[in-house]
Write a structure and sequence with these properties.
CATH class: Alpha Beta
CATH superfamily: PPM-type phosphatase domain
Distance between the termini: 30 Å
Number of domains: 1
CATH architecture: 4-Layer Sandwich
Number of helices: 9
Number of strands: 10
Order of helices and strands: EHEEHHHEEEEEEHHHHEH
Helix content: 25-40%
Largest sheet: 5 strands, antiparallel
Strand order of the largest sheet: 1-10-9-6-7
Length: 292
């Protein structure tokens, strides 16, 4: 994966976020004696409050692909319905109360649990058959809220000023990538947690952060993260910034991500797990970047 990063384009006007998501079955599932469906689901919403949602179904749960899709669909719909409340939480200059942020994050998780419970009742099966991990980011004008249940990775890209070259006195901004939350553990170590009826509040990671210098966001299942994020989350591949740059310029499509996920370079040395990713990218106005 390339690690060389290109400067953030500061010539454009700030616009709405561009978003893109895709989920594909891994080679291990495609090449199994009985082909398995993709157990990952990913979705996005653009506009004033962009949303990224990724869910990875538990491999040991027979209908987790349906559960993952149900959770993604339910949370996208809920956040669209609660657009006013999202704005109150994430757009206000005055920071919201910590209890309000926590209550909103907990509500999102309870809604995901409720979506799985309703589906389990409709299909006359156990919620355990539908369980999945969950990664979510929703961004406002001032701050973003993120939450994480289980493994996978959440990444933010921010514009960081660096020294200008000798031929220019203008500030130069470079993308810097970092992760949100603690890394999850693999299911086969019996340490990954899932959205199900047994999930406890202390197993949910969540947080808020300032969004002023954020130019990109990504949520990805562990199948994609194993090539893009180091095991401990300390290092993120520069490939992600290339994708985000192509997305903000209108040059990235789903087919591009699918081809990359199945390329020899991306598949070499991996487990062959399903791969899903949700991306959002934007440009920032020059004056805002300089002040940051």
């Amino acid at each position: 994966m390339p690690d060389e990063l290109s400067p953030i384009d500061t010539e454009r006007q700030e616009g709405t976020w561009a978003t893109l998501a895709t989920a594909v079955p891994g080679l291990a599932h495609l090449e199994a004696p009985t082909a398995m469906p993709c157990q990952d689901a990913a979705g996005t919403a653009a506009g004033r409050h962009p949303v990224l949602v990724v869910a990875d179904g538990a491999g040991s749960s027979p209908a987790s692909d349906r559960g993952a899709q149900a959770v993604v669909t339910a949370l996208l719909r809920l956040l669209d319905t609660l657009e006013v409340q999202v704005g109150q939480l994430l757009d206000s200059v005055a920071p919201p109360e910590a209890a309000d942020k926590e209550a909103f994050a907990r509500m999102l998780v309870r809604h995901a649990q409720g979506a799985l419970k309703d589906l389990a009742v409709a299909q006359q099966r156990s919620v355990r058959d539908l369980r999945c991990t969950l990664l979510l980011v929703v961004a406002g004008q001032v701050r973003l809220l993120w939450l994480k249940v289980g493994d996978g990775a959440l990444v933010v890209e921010q514009a960081v000023p660096v020294e200008a070259g000798v031929e220019s006195s203008e500030p130069v901004l470079m993308p810097e990538l970092g992760t949100l939350g603690e890394p999850g553990k693999g299911e086969f170590a019996n340490q990954t947690v899932f959205v199900d009826e047994r999930l406890s509040p202390d197993q949910v990671q969540w947080g808020c952060r300032d969004i002023a210098q954020v130019t990109g966001m990504a949520a990805m299942s562990d199948g994609a993260a194993e090539k893009l994020v180091s095991l401990g989350g300390e290092r993120v591949s520069g490939q992600l910034s290339h994708w985000l740059d192509d997305l903000r310029r209108g040059r990235l499509r789903q087919r591009d991500l699918v081809r990359l996920f199945y390329s020899d370079a991306f598949c070499r040395g991996t487990s062959g797990d399903d791969r899903s990713i949700a991306l959002a990218a934007r440009d920032l106005p020059l004056q805002e970047n300089v002040q940051g």
